[in-house]
Amino acid sequence: MTTDTDNMRRRILSGLAAGAALPWLSNAALAAGPRIKVAGLHSDPVENAWNSRIHEACKAADAEGIIEYKFSESVANTDYPRVIREYAEQGVQLIVGEVYGVEKDARAVAKDYPKVAFLCGSSGGPQASNFGTFGTWNHEAAYLTGILAGHMTKTGKLGAVGGYPIPEVNRLIHAFRQGVREVKPDATFQVAFINTWFDPPKAKEAALAQLDGGCDILFGERIGTADAAKARGKLSVGSLIDYMPRYPGTVFANAMWYFRPILNGAIADVQAGRPTGKDYSPFSMMKTGGNGVTFDSKLVPPAALKMMQAKEAAIKSGSLTIPAVDTQPT
Question: Which candidate, 158, 143, 134, 129, places its Cα nearest to that of 277?
């Protein structure tokens, strides 16, 4: 059955077929338009990997004169509706945040402010004309890091530590495994979910258990995973942000997520007075610059890099599609 969200997604993807070089999405074009007021609502500290991607993109747009940015961090789910109302009453034009833990209440408040645009991380679809959603689609990059890991594992046992088993997290782990298996079909995997978005000690503890179980490479969807790998002298892959400066010799690659294309898409719609009740997730795709891989050339073998770059080129050209598998991995 085809849904309205599916149709919207197809329309956005077809519009992005030429890549990120859409003139109305360029930083220069947006800077030439009216400066809009944006508020960021973060349920975790902005240093958390996921939140930092949004926060840094908004700060950059502010510095470029495209938006006026203010934010609140560590907002409890019980306070989220109240903070949304406060920003809406202050005349904010675009509210950026996440509603995974407060979908019903946040969407109810959004109905009370139809002239305020919303851009929210969500496992659900858009709502009305003002409530836009996005997912964290860096599974293409996760797949490519799996290609590297498949070349580099010695035990053939790999682990992953995630926050919650929601679709956006599940697809990363599945894609990583797909990449590994293309190099090492007999690889085995362990997975742990710590049921929180920001608890580095808990992530480290879960990762240590996997290393003690024979894993020699970890996919760190949560901050703290690389700490365990470093403590055991093993290797790790980062997600969303670049962990290599923090963990030299331990993190050899990162499945990066870049929020700026999503943000630019919403800003352009607000500036033009267009509805924002759409799914902005496709701006996360590699062909639009929404995700990519960083790696340590001192750690990654040439054969692994050659295969990874060939796959990367195929993804960007559209000849290779990495499926989004959203079921909980075991």
Answer: 129
Residues 195 and 130 grouped into a single domain: no
User: Phi, psi at residue 39, to the nearest 5°?
Assistant: -120, 135
In a domain, 330, yes or no: no
For residues 111 and 226, is the Cβ–Cβ distance under 8 A?
A: no
Q: How many domains does the chain divide into?
A: 2
Say if residues 305 and 278 touch (Cβ distance below 8 Å). Answer: no
From 79, 65, 1, 82, select the one nearest 30 (Cα to Cα).
65
User: Which H helix or E strand runs over 177?
Assistant: helix 167-183
* Token couple for 329: 């991995």
Residues of the chain with pLDDT under 70: 1-24
Return the closest-CA partner of residue 253 out of 313, 307, 312, 296: 296
Helix (H, G, I), strand (E, B) or coil at 220: strand
Beta-sheet strand order (sheet of 157-162)? 188-193, 157-162, 217-220, 235-240, 251-257, 291-295
Q: Which residues contact 126 (CB under 8 A, 6 or more apart)?
A: 5, 8, 132, 133, 277, 278, 279
Six-digit token string for 256: 């990066």
- Tokens for 150? 């498949």
